[in-house]
Structures
1.
Amino acid sequence: MGESTQLWEYHIQKDLDLMQYVSSVNIACGYHAGDTETMSRLCHEAHRLGKSIGAHPSFYDPEGFGRREMNLSPKELEENIINQLETLKSAASAQKARIRHVKPHGALYNMAALDPEIAEAICRAILTFDPTLILYGLAGSHLIRAGIEAGLQTGGEGFADRTYQEDGSLTPRSKAGALIEDVAHSLSQVMMMVQEGLMLTGTGLKIPIEVQTICIHSDGAHALEFASAIQEGLGTAGILIEAIKRI
Protein backbone atom coordinates (compact mmCIF):
# COMPACT_ATOMS: atom_id res chain seq x y z
CA MET A 1 0.00 0.00 0.00
CA GLY A 2 0.91 3.68 -0.26
CA GLU A 3 2.51 3.27 -3.65
CA SER A 4 0.83 5.97 -5.71
CA THR A 5 1.95 9.58 -6.10
CA GLN A 6 -0.59 10.37 -8.85
CA LEU A 7 -4.32 10.71 -8.18
CA TRP A 8 -3.30 10.49 -4.53
CA GLU A 9 -6.75 10.76 -2.95
CA TYR A 10 -8.19 8.10 -5.25
CA HIS A 11 -5.44 5.57 -4.64
CA ILE A 12 -5.14 6.06 -0.90
CA GLN A 13 -8.93 5.67 -0.62
CA LYS A 14 -8.58 2.39 -2.51
CA ASP A 15 -5.94 1.30 0.03
CA LEU A 16 -8.23 2.30 2.88
CA ASP A 17 -11.12 0.38 1.32
CA LEU A 18 -8.93 -2.71 1.02
CA MET A 19 -8.18 -2.70 4.73
CA GLN A 20 -11.63 -4.07 5.54
CA TYR A 21 -10.67 -7.37 3.86
CA VAL A 22 -7.11 -7.98 5.06
CA SER A 23 -5.25 -8.69 8.28
CA SER A 24 -1.94 -7.09 7.33
CA VAL A 25 -0.64 -4.25 5.18
CA ASN A 26 2.77 -3.71 3.57
CA ILE A 27 3.50 0.03 3.35
CA ALA A 28 5.97 1.53 0.85
CA CYS A 29 8.85 3.24 2.64
CA GLY A 30 9.88 5.93 0.14
CA TYR A 31 12.47 4.21 -2.04
CA HIS A 32 10.17 3.01 -4.82
CA ALA A 33 7.08 4.94 -3.73
CA GLY A 34 5.50 6.50 -0.68
CA ASP A 35 5.91 9.70 1.29
CA THR A 36 5.59 10.80 4.90
CA GLU A 37 1.95 11.89 4.61
CA THR A 38 0.88 8.64 2.99
CA MET A 39 2.80 6.48 5.47
CA SER A 40 1.31 8.39 8.40
CA ARG A 41 -2.25 8.16 7.13
CA LEU A 42 -2.02 4.45 6.39
CA CYS A 43 -0.35 3.69 9.72
CA HIS A 44 -3.06 5.62 11.52
CA GLU A 45 -5.87 3.72 9.82
CA ALA A 46 -4.17 0.32 10.09
CA HIS A 47 -3.58 0.86 13.80
CA ARG A 48 -7.17 2.02 14.32
CA LEU A 49 -8.50 -1.10 12.62
CA GLY A 50 -6.08 -3.49 14.31
CA LYS A 51 -4.22 -4.44 11.14
CA SER A 52 -0.61 -5.64 11.27
CA ILE A 53 1.72 -2.98 9.82
CA GLY A 54 4.59 -4.15 7.65
CA ALA A 55 7.47 -2.35 5.95
CA HIS A 56 7.76 -2.77 2.18
CA PRO A 57 11.39 -1.81 1.43
CA SER A 58 12.90 -1.86 -2.05
CA PHE A 59 15.86 -0.79 -4.10
CA TYR A 60 16.09 2.99 -4.49
CA ASP A 61 14.26 3.12 -7.81
CA PRO A 62 11.38 5.63 -7.93
CA GLU A 63 11.61 5.85 -11.74
CA GLY A 64 11.27 2.09 -12.18
CA PHE A 65 8.88 1.55 -9.26
CA GLY A 66 11.43 -0.75 -7.64
CA ARG A 67 11.07 -3.32 -10.38
CA ARG A 68 14.55 -2.92 -11.91
CA GLU A 69 17.30 -5.23 -10.70
CA MET A 70 20.26 -3.48 -9.07
CA ASN A 71 23.71 -4.62 -8.04
CA LEU A 72 24.45 -3.39 -4.52
CA SER A 73 27.02 -4.63 -2.06
CA PRO A 74 25.57 -6.49 0.93
CA LYS A 75 26.54 -3.56 3.15
CA GLU A 76 24.80 -1.02 0.90
CA LEU A 77 21.70 -3.19 0.80
CA GLU A 78 21.61 -3.56 4.57
CA GLU A 79 21.93 0.20 5.05
CA ASN A 80 19.20 0.93 2.51
CA ILE A 81 16.77 -1.45 4.18
CA ILE A 82 17.49 -0.11 7.67
CA ASN A 83 16.95 3.46 6.43
CA GLN A 84 13.54 2.50 5.09
CA LEU A 85 12.57 0.67 8.27
CA GLU A 86 13.54 3.74 10.28
CA THR A 87 11.39 5.94 8.05
CA LEU A 88 8.29 3.80 8.48
CA LYS A 89 8.96 3.33 12.18
CA SER A 90 8.92 7.09 12.63
CA ALA A 91 5.59 7.39 10.81
CA ALA A 92 4.10 4.50 12.77
CA SER A 93 5.35 5.77 16.14
CA ALA A 94 3.73 9.14 15.51
CA GLN A 95 0.42 7.26 15.25
CA LYS A 96 1.18 5.20 18.39
CA ALA A 97 1.62 2.13 16.18
CA ARG A 98 4.54 -0.20 15.48
CA ILE A 99 5.96 -2.24 12.62
CA ARG A 100 5.37 -5.98 13.01
CA HIS A 101 6.73 -7.46 9.79
CA VAL A 102 8.88 -6.82 6.72
CA LYS A 103 8.15 -7.77 3.13
CA PRO A 104 10.63 -6.70 0.40
CA HIS A 105 9.22 -5.20 -2.79
CA GLY A 106 9.61 -5.82 -6.48
CA ALA A 107 13.01 -6.70 -7.89
CA LEU A 108 14.49 -6.92 -4.40
CA TYR A 109 11.86 -9.50 -3.42
CA ASN A 110 12.38 -11.59 -6.54
CA MET A 111 16.17 -11.44 -6.38
CA ALA A 112 16.17 -12.41 -2.70
CA ALA A 113 14.01 -15.42 -3.55
CA LEU A 114 16.77 -16.75 -5.82
CA ASP A 115 20.02 -15.30 -4.43
CA PRO A 116 21.18 -16.45 -0.96
CA GLU A 117 23.59 -13.49 -0.58
CA ILE A 118 20.82 -10.94 -1.08
CA ALA A 119 18.49 -12.92 1.17
CA GLU A 120 21.10 -13.02 3.94
CA ALA A 121 21.73 -9.26 3.66
CA ILE A 122 18.02 -8.58 4.13
CA CYS A 123 17.98 -10.82 7.19
CA ARG A 124 21.00 -9.08 8.70
CA ALA A 125 19.31 -5.71 8.25
CA ILE A 126 16.18 -6.92 10.04
CA LEU A 127 18.20 -8.46 12.85
CA THR A 128 20.08 -5.20 13.31
CA PHE A 129 16.92 -3.11 13.30
CA ASP A 130 14.55 -5.35 15.28
CA PRO A 131 14.94 -9.15 15.50
CA THR A 132 11.31 -9.52 16.63
CA LEU A 133 9.99 -8.51 13.20
CA ILE A 134 8.48 -11.27 11.06
CA LEU A 135 9.97 -11.73 7.59
CA TYR A 136 7.52 -12.29 4.73
CA GLY A 137 8.92 -13.87 1.57
CA LEU A 138 8.05 -16.10 -1.36
CA ALA A 139 7.09 -19.51 0.03
CA GLY A 140 9.88 -22.06 -0.35
CA SER A 141 12.43 -19.45 -1.46
CA HIS A 142 15.98 -18.65 -0.41
CA LEU A 143 14.63 -15.64 1.51
CA ILE A 144 12.47 -17.83 3.74
CA ARG A 145 15.31 -20.31 4.24
CA ALA A 146 17.75 -17.50 5.09
CA GLY A 147 15.28 -16.06 7.59
CA ILE A 148 14.86 -19.39 9.35
CA GLU A 149 18.62 -19.91 9.49
CA ALA A 150 19.08 -16.39 10.89
CA GLY A 151 16.59 -17.09 13.67
CA LEU A 152 13.84 -14.82 12.33
CA GLN A 153 10.21 -15.81 12.38
CA THR A 154 9.03 -16.12 8.79
CA GLY A 155 5.79 -16.12 6.82
CA GLY A 156 5.79 -18.01 3.53
CA GLU A 157 3.80 -15.99 1.03
CA GLY A 158 1.54 -16.99 -1.83
CA PHE A 159 0.00 -14.68 -4.43
CA ALA A 160 -3.62 -14.15 -5.34
CA ASP A 161 -2.91 -12.10 -8.45
CA ARG A 162 0.24 -13.59 -9.99
CA THR A 163 0.97 -16.84 -11.81
CA TYR A 164 3.83 -19.22 -11.07
CA GLN A 165 6.56 -21.00 -12.97
CA GLU A 166 7.54 -24.64 -12.47
CA ASP A 167 10.46 -23.72 -10.18
CA GLY A 168 8.04 -22.01 -7.79
CA SER A 169 9.04 -18.48 -8.80
CA LEU A 170 6.59 -15.87 -10.00
CA THR A 171 6.10 -15.49 -13.73
CA PRO A 172 8.00 -12.30 -14.69
CA ARG A 173 5.74 -9.34 -15.39
CA SER A 174 7.39 -9.05 -18.80
CA LYS A 175 5.83 -12.37 -19.86
CA ALA A 176 2.28 -12.94 -21.04
CA GLY A 177 0.00 -14.38 -18.41
CA ALA A 178 2.00 -13.09 -15.45
CA LEU A 179 -1.00 -11.34 -13.92
CA ILE A 180 -4.26 -12.96 -12.89
CA GLU A 181 -7.15 -10.83 -14.11
CA ASP A 182 -10.13 -13.06 -13.29
CA VAL A 183 -11.77 -13.25 -9.85
CA ALA A 184 -12.61 -16.93 -10.16
CA HIS A 185 -9.02 -17.77 -11.13
CA SER A 186 -7.67 -15.78 -8.20
CA LEU A 187 -9.99 -17.42 -5.69
CA SER A 188 -9.30 -20.90 -7.06
CA GLN A 189 -5.56 -20.34 -6.76
CA VAL A 190 -5.80 -19.13 -3.18
CA MET A 191 -8.08 -21.96 -2.08
CA MET A 192 -5.80 -24.57 -3.65
CA MET A 193 -2.78 -23.10 -1.86
CA VAL A 194 -4.49 -22.82 1.51
CA GLN A 195 -6.54 -26.02 1.52
CA GLU A 196 -4.38 -28.40 -0.52
CA GLY A 197 -0.87 -26.98 -0.21
CA LEU A 198 -0.57 -27.00 -3.99
CA MET A 199 0.04 -24.48 -6.75
CA LEU A 200 -1.01 -24.87 -10.39
CA THR A 201 1.70 -23.44 -12.65
CA GLY A 202 1.17 -21.78 -15.99
CA THR A 203 2.10 -25.05 -17.69
CA GLY A 204 -0.55 -27.00 -15.79
CA LEU A 205 1.84 -28.69 -13.34
CA LYS A 206 0.82 -28.91 -9.69
CA ILE A 207 3.67 -28.18 -7.27
CA PRO A 208 3.71 -28.17 -3.46
CA ILE A 209 3.60 -24.84 -1.66
CA GLU A 210 3.32 -23.98 2.04
CA VAL A 211 1.85 -20.55 2.71
CA GLN A 212 1.02 -18.62 5.85
CA THR A 213 0.04 -15.36 4.13
CA ILE A 214 -1.57 -14.35 0.85
CA CYS A 215 -0.58 -11.23 -1.11
CA ILE A 216 -2.87 -9.00 -3.12
CA HIS A 217 -1.26 -6.00 -4.85
CA SER A 218 -3.27 -2.92 -3.93
CA ASP A 219 -2.48 -1.29 -7.28
CA GLY A 220 -3.97 -4.21 -9.21
CA ALA A 221 -6.98 -3.41 -11.37
CA HIS A 222 -9.13 -5.98 -9.56
CA ALA A 223 -7.66 -5.75 -6.05
CA LEU A 224 -10.92 -4.95 -4.27
CA GLU A 225 -12.86 -7.65 -6.12
CA PHE A 226 -10.16 -10.23 -5.40
CA ALA A 227 -9.96 -9.30 -1.73
CA SER A 228 -13.73 -9.45 -1.26
CA ALA A 229 -14.06 -12.82 -3.01
CA ILE A 230 -11.13 -14.33 -1.11
CA GLN A 231 -12.45 -13.13 2.24
CA GLU A 232 -15.84 -14.68 1.45
CA GLY A 233 -14.33 -17.89 0.06
CA LEU A 234 -12.06 -18.47 3.04
CA GLY A 235 -14.85 -17.61 5.46
CA THR A 236 -17.24 -20.06 3.81
CA ALA A 237 -14.55 -22.75 4.16
CA GLY A 238 -14.21 -21.94 7.86
CA ILE A 239 -10.73 -20.47 7.48
CA LEU A 240 -9.96 -17.47 9.70
CA ILE A 241 -8.04 -14.53 8.27
CA GLU A 242 -5.72 -13.04 10.87
CA ALA A 243 -2.23 -11.59 11.05
CA ILE A 244 0.66 -13.93 11.74
CA LYS A 245 1.27 -13.81 15.47
CA ARG A 246 4.71 -13.53 17.02
CA ILE A 247 5.76 -16.91 18.44
2.
Amino acid sequence: MKALCVLQHVEAEYLGLLEDHLEGRNVRFRYARPFTAGGSVPAAAAGFDGLILLGAGPLGVVSGPLLPSLAAELRLARDFLDHGLPVVGFNLGAVLLAVAAGGGAEEAPLRFQVARATRTADAVAGTALPAAFPLALYLRDRPLLPAGTTVMAADESGEPLVFTVRDNAVGFLGHPGMKSGMVEDLVMEFDDTPPDVADELERMRAAQSDIAEALGPIMVALTQMTGWMAADGENGVIPPAAGTGARAT
Protein backbone atom coordinates (compact mmCIF):
# COMPACT_ATOMS: atom_id res chain seq x y z
CA MET A 1 0.00 0.00 0.00
CA LYS A 2 1.43 3.37 -1.04
CA ALA A 3 1.58 6.25 1.43
CA LEU A 4 1.79 9.88 0.33
CA CYS A 5 2.73 13.07 2.13
CA VAL A 6 0.38 15.92 1.16
CA LEU A 7 1.65 19.41 1.99
CA GLN A 8 -1.29 21.75 2.56
CA HIS A 9 -0.57 25.48 2.72
CA VAL A 10 -3.95 27.07 3.44
CA GLU A 11 -7.18 25.74 4.89
CA ALA A 12 -9.20 26.06 1.67
CA GLU A 13 -6.90 24.14 -0.70
CA TYR A 14 -6.82 20.39 -0.16
CA LEU A 15 -6.96 17.30 -2.38
CA GLY A 16 -10.60 17.89 -3.23
CA LEU A 17 -11.96 15.37 -5.71
CA LEU A 18 -8.65 13.46 -5.64
CA GLU A 19 -9.33 12.08 -2.17
CA ASP A 20 -11.89 9.55 -3.39
CA HIS A 21 -9.69 8.53 -6.32
CA LEU A 22 -6.70 7.85 -4.07
CA GLU A 23 -8.79 5.97 -1.52
CA GLY A 24 -10.33 3.91 -4.32
CA ARG A 25 -6.82 2.88 -5.39
CA ASN A 26 -5.86 2.01 -1.81
CA VAL A 27 -3.33 4.84 -1.73
CA ARG A 28 -3.02 6.36 1.73
CA PHE A 29 -2.30 10.04 2.26
CA ARG A 30 -1.29 12.12 5.23
CA TYR A 31 -1.74 15.89 5.32
CA ALA A 32 1.10 18.01 6.68
CA ARG A 33 -0.25 21.44 7.67
CA PRO A 34 2.61 23.78 8.59
CA PHE A 35 0.22 26.77 8.70
CA THR A 36 -1.62 25.39 11.74
CA ALA A 37 -0.57 25.69 15.38
CA GLY A 38 1.94 22.94 16.03
CA GLY A 39 2.06 21.96 12.33
CA SER A 40 5.34 21.42 10.54
CA VAL A 41 6.96 20.29 7.32
CA PRO A 42 8.35 16.73 7.54
CA ALA A 43 12.15 16.71 7.79
CA ALA A 44 12.71 14.04 5.13
CA ALA A 45 11.04 11.69 2.66
CA ALA A 46 11.50 8.61 4.86
CA GLY A 47 8.29 6.65 5.28
CA PHE A 48 6.54 7.99 2.19
CA ASP A 49 6.18 6.81 -1.42
CA GLY A 50 5.58 10.28 -2.82
CA LEU A 51 4.87 13.94 -2.16
CA ILE A 52 1.95 16.13 -3.25
CA LEU A 53 2.47 19.90 -3.03
CA LEU A 54 -0.88 21.67 -2.99
CA GLY A 55 -1.66 25.24 -3.96
CA ALA A 56 -1.42 28.18 -1.59
CA GLY A 57 -4.17 30.61 -2.53
CA PRO A 58 -2.64 34.10 -2.90
CA LEU A 59 0.77 33.14 -1.46
CA GLY A 60 3.77 33.21 -3.77
CA VAL A 61 7.34 32.02 -4.21
CA VAL A 62 8.90 35.24 -5.53
CA SER A 63 6.11 37.85 -5.22
CA GLY A 64 3.21 38.91 -3.04
CA PRO A 65 2.96 37.47 0.44
CA LEU A 66 5.54 34.68 0.35
CA LEU A 67 4.89 31.13 1.47
CA PRO A 68 6.20 31.04 5.08
CA SER A 69 7.41 27.42 4.89
CA LEU A 70 9.12 27.89 1.50
CA ALA A 71 12.68 26.91 2.47
CA ALA A 72 11.63 23.81 4.40
CA GLU A 73 9.33 22.67 1.59
CA LEU A 74 12.01 23.05 -1.06
CA ARG A 75 14.39 20.97 1.08
CA LEU A 76 11.74 18.27 1.46
CA ALA A 77 10.86 18.24 -2.26
CA ARG A 78 14.55 17.93 -3.15
CA ASP A 79 14.89 15.01 -0.74
CA PHE A 80 12.06 13.19 -2.48
CA LEU A 81 13.56 13.93 -5.90
CA ASP A 82 17.06 12.89 -4.78
CA HIS A 83 15.64 9.54 -3.65
CA GLY A 84 13.85 9.04 -6.97
CA LEU A 85 10.43 9.36 -5.35
CA PRO A 86 7.50 11.00 -7.18
CA VAL A 87 6.60 14.62 -6.52
CA VAL A 88 3.33 16.10 -7.80
CA GLY A 89 2.53 19.81 -7.63
CA PHE A 90 -0.79 21.61 -8.07
CA ASN A 91 -1.07 25.38 -8.61
CA LEU A 92 1.77 26.98 -6.60
CA GLY A 93 2.91 23.44 -5.81
CA ALA A 94 3.91 23.09 -9.47
CA VAL A 95 6.05 26.23 -9.14
CA LEU A 96 7.68 24.73 -6.04
CA LEU A 97 8.38 21.53 -7.98
CA ALA A 98 10.04 23.47 -10.81
CA VAL A 99 12.30 25.30 -8.34
CA ALA A 100 13.19 22.12 -6.42
CA ALA A 101 14.03 20.30 -9.65
CA GLY A 102 16.59 22.92 -10.70
CA GLY A 103 14.41 25.45 -12.50
CA GLY A 104 13.07 28.67 -11.04
CA ALA A 105 10.13 31.01 -10.73
CA GLU A 106 9.16 34.44 -11.97
CA GLU A 107 6.61 37.00 -10.87
CA ALA A 108 3.09 36.67 -12.20
CA PRO A 109 -0.11 38.16 -10.77
CA LEU A 110 -2.63 36.26 -8.69
CA ARG A 111 -5.10 34.73 -11.14
CA PHE A 112 -8.08 32.41 -11.25
CA GLN A 113 -9.38 30.88 -14.44
CA VAL A 114 -10.73 27.69 -15.90
CA ALA A 115 -8.33 26.94 -18.74
CA ARG A 116 -8.64 24.41 -21.53
CA ALA A 117 -5.62 22.13 -21.45
CA THR A 118 -4.63 20.33 -24.65
CA ARG A 119 -2.23 17.39 -24.67
CA THR A 120 0.97 18.19 -26.56
CA ALA A 121 2.72 16.19 -29.25
CA ASP A 122 5.61 15.66 -26.78
CA ALA A 123 3.39 14.10 -24.10
CA VAL A 124 4.76 10.85 -22.72
CA ALA A 125 3.53 8.02 -24.93
CA GLY A 126 1.17 5.51 -23.39
CA THR A 127 -0.27 7.74 -20.67
CA ALA A 128 -4.01 8.18 -20.29
CA LEU A 129 -3.89 11.97 -20.12
CA PRO A 130 -6.97 13.19 -22.03
CA ALA A 131 -6.52 14.94 -25.36
CA ALA A 132 -8.24 18.01 -23.89
CA PHE A 133 -9.63 18.78 -20.46
CA PRO A 134 -10.63 21.74 -18.22
CA LEU A 135 -8.16 22.76 -15.52
CA ALA A 136 -8.92 25.28 -12.76
CA LEU A 137 -5.97 27.59 -11.96
CA TYR A 138 -5.69 29.65 -8.77
CA LEU A 139 -2.14 30.83 -8.11
CA ARG A 140 0.46 33.55 -8.08
CA ASP A 141 3.83 33.40 -9.91
CA ARG A 142 4.93 31.21 -12.80
CA PRO A 143 7.48 28.36 -13.05
CA LEU A 144 10.70 28.53 -15.03
CA LEU A 145 10.95 24.93 -16.16
CA PRO A 146 14.26 23.09 -15.61
CA ALA A 147 16.24 21.45 -18.39
CA GLY A 148 14.84 18.10 -19.44
CA THR A 149 11.22 19.05 -18.73
CA THR A 150 8.51 17.58 -20.95
CA VAL A 151 5.40 19.72 -21.40
CA MET A 152 2.45 17.34 -21.35
CA ALA A 153 -0.38 19.84 -21.90
CA ALA A 154 -0.66 23.54 -22.73
CA ASP A 155 -3.34 26.19 -22.95
CA GLU A 156 -4.61 27.82 -26.13
CA SER A 157 -1.69 30.28 -26.18
CA GLY A 158 0.90 27.53 -25.75
CA GLU A 159 1.62 28.22 -22.06
CA PRO A 160 2.49 24.97 -20.21
CA LEU A 161 -0.23 23.65 -17.94
CA VAL A 162 1.09 20.14 -17.19
CA PHE A 163 4.76 19.15 -17.19
CA THR A 164 6.98 16.27 -16.09
CA VAL A 165 10.54 16.30 -14.79
CA ARG A 166 12.81 13.39 -13.85
CA ASP A 167 10.31 10.90 -15.31
CA ASN A 168 8.05 10.61 -12.25
CA ALA A 169 7.54 14.19 -11.05
CA VAL A 170 4.49 16.02 -12.44
CA GLY A 171 3.39 19.64 -12.19
CA PHE A 172 -0.13 20.92 -12.87
CA LEU A 173 -0.47 24.70 -13.20
CA GLY A 174 -3.90 24.20 -11.71
CA HIS A 175 -5.74 21.69 -9.54
CA PRO A 176 -7.38 18.82 -11.49
CA GLY A 177 -9.63 17.99 -8.52
CA MET A 178 -10.62 21.51 -7.48
CA LYS A 179 -14.19 22.17 -6.36
CA SER A 180 -15.91 25.52 -6.76
CA GLY A 181 -16.43 25.56 -2.99
CA MET A 182 -12.66 25.59 -2.52
CA VAL A 183 -12.43 28.83 -4.52
CA GLU A 184 -15.31 30.31 -2.53
CA ASP A 185 -13.44 29.48 0.69
CA LEU A 186 -10.25 31.07 -0.64
CA VAL A 187 -12.15 34.26 -1.39
CA MET A 188 -13.52 34.29 2.16
CA GLU A 189 -10.18 33.34 3.76
CA PHE A 190 -8.07 36.09 2.16
CA ASP A 191 -8.55 39.76 1.33
CA ASP A 192 -6.23 39.35 -1.67
CA THR A 193 -8.35 37.88 -4.48
CA PRO A 194 -7.98 37.65 -8.28
CA PRO A 195 -9.82 40.04 -10.59
CA ASP A 196 -13.20 38.98 -11.99
CA VAL A 197 -13.40 36.11 -9.53
CA ALA A 198 -17.21 36.13 -9.44
CA ASP A 199 -17.56 35.75 -13.21
CA GLU A 200 -14.92 33.01 -13.34
CA LEU A 201 -16.61 31.17 -10.49
CA GLU A 202 -19.75 30.96 -12.59
CA ARG A 203 -17.69 29.43 -15.41
CA MET A 204 -16.19 26.95 -12.98
CA ARG A 205 -19.57 25.91 -11.61
CA ALA A 206 -20.72 25.29 -15.18
CA ALA A 207 -17.58 23.22 -15.86
CA GLN A 208 -17.60 21.29 -12.55
CA SER A 209 -19.06 18.09 -14.02
CA ASP A 210 -16.52 18.19 -16.88
CA ILE A 211 -13.69 18.67 -14.35
CA ALA A 212 -14.92 15.65 -12.38
CA GLU A 213 -15.27 13.53 -15.53
CA ALA A 214 -11.77 14.41 -16.77
CA LEU A 215 -10.24 13.52 -13.42
CA GLY A 216 -10.76 9.79 -14.03
CA PRO A 217 -8.31 9.47 -16.95
CA ILE A 218 -6.05 12.12 -15.40
CA MET A 219 -5.70 9.94 -12.29
CA VAL A 220 -4.94 6.91 -14.45
CA ALA A 221 -2.19 8.92 -16.18
CA LEU A 222 -0.90 10.25 -12.86
CA THR A 223 -0.65 6.82 -11.26
CA GLN A 224 1.07 5.52 -14.39
CA MET A 225 3.69 8.28 -14.29
CA THR A 226 4.28 8.09 -10.54
CA GLY A 227 4.09 4.31 -10.16
CA TRP A 228 1.70 4.62 -7.22
CA MET A 229 -0.21 1.57 -8.40
CA ALA A 230 2.99 -0.51 -8.66
CA ALA A 231 3.86 -3.31 -6.27
CA ASP A 232 5.59 -2.35 -3.03
CA GLY A 233 9.26 -1.55 -3.50
CA GLU A 234 9.08 -0.74 -7.22
CA ASN A 235 9.44 2.98 -6.54
CA GLY A 236 12.46 2.57 -4.31
CA VAL A 237 10.55 3.69 -1.24
CA ILE A 238 12.61 4.45 1.84
CA PRO A 239 11.68 2.09 4.72
CA PRO A 240 9.08 3.69 7.02
CA ALA A 241 10.18 5.51 10.13
CA ALA A 242 8.24 4.99 13.30
CA GLY A 243 5.00 6.96 13.41
CA THR A 244 4.98 8.08 9.74
CA GLY A 245 2.91 7.22 6.70
CA ALA A 246 -0.48 7.05 8.39
CA ARG A 247 -3.49 8.38 6.52
CA ALA A 248 -5.16 11.43 7.96
CA THR A 249 -7.91 13.64 6.58
3.
Amino acid sequence: MGLNVDRTLVAVYAVSGLLAGIAGAILAAQFGAWQPNEGVGWELFAISAVVLGARG
Protein backbone atom coordinates (compact mmCIF):
# COMPACT_ATOMS: atom_id res chain seq x y z
CA MET A 1 0.00 0.00 0.00
CA GLY A 2 3.03 2.28 -0.13
CA LEU A 3 3.58 2.51 3.62
CA ASN A 4 7.11 3.18 4.81
CA VAL A 5 7.65 0.29 7.21
CA ASP A 6 10.81 1.66 8.85
CA ARG A 7 9.27 5.06 9.57
CA THR A 8 6.07 3.46 10.91
CA LEU A 9 8.07 1.13 13.16
CA VAL A 10 10.10 4.01 14.60
CA ALA A 11 6.93 6.03 15.16
CA VAL A 12 5.24 3.15 16.99
CA TYR A 13 8.26 2.64 19.26
CA ALA A 14 8.44 6.38 19.95
CA VAL A 15 4.76 6.60 20.88
CA SER A 16 5.09 3.48 23.04
CA GLY A 17 8.05 4.96 24.90
CA LEU A 18 6.27 8.28 25.37
CA LEU A 19 3.17 6.61 26.79
CA ALA A 20 5.29 4.42 29.10
CA GLY A 21 6.99 7.55 30.42
CA ILE A 22 3.66 9.26 31.01
CA ALA A 23 2.34 6.17 32.79
CA GLY A 24 5.42 6.15 35.03
CA ALA A 25 4.95 9.82 35.89
CA ILE A 26 1.28 9.26 36.71
CA LEU A 27 2.17 6.26 38.88
CA ALA A 28 4.75 8.31 40.76
CA ALA A 29 2.28 11.16 41.20
CA GLN A 30 -0.32 8.82 42.69
CA PHE A 31 2.10 7.65 45.37
CA GLY A 32 3.32 11.17 46.01
CA ALA A 33 6.99 10.24 45.82
CA TRP A 34 9.64 9.46 43.24
CA GLN A 35 11.02 6.21 44.63
CA PRO A 36 13.32 4.21 42.33
CA ASN A 37 11.98 0.88 43.62
CA GLU A 38 8.29 1.74 43.28
CA GLY A 39 7.46 -0.88 40.62
CA VAL A 40 9.41 -3.80 42.08
CA GLY A 41 7.37 -6.97 41.86
CA TRP A 42 5.10 -5.79 39.03
CA GLU A 43 6.96 -7.76 36.36
CA LEU A 44 4.63 -10.74 36.59
CA PHE A 45 1.58 -8.49 36.16
CA ALA A 46 3.12 -6.95 33.03
CA ILE A 47 4.00 -10.34 31.56
CA SER A 48 0.55 -11.76 32.25
CA ALA A 49 -1.09 -8.69 30.71
CA VAL A 50 0.93 -9.17 27.54
CA VAL A 51 0.16 -12.89 27.35
CA LEU A 52 -3.55 -12.40 27.97
CA GLY A 53 -3.69 -9.47 25.55
CA ALA A 54 -2.07 -11.52 22.82
CA ARG A 55 -4.63 -14.27 23.21
CA GLY A 56 -7.71 -12.02 23.38
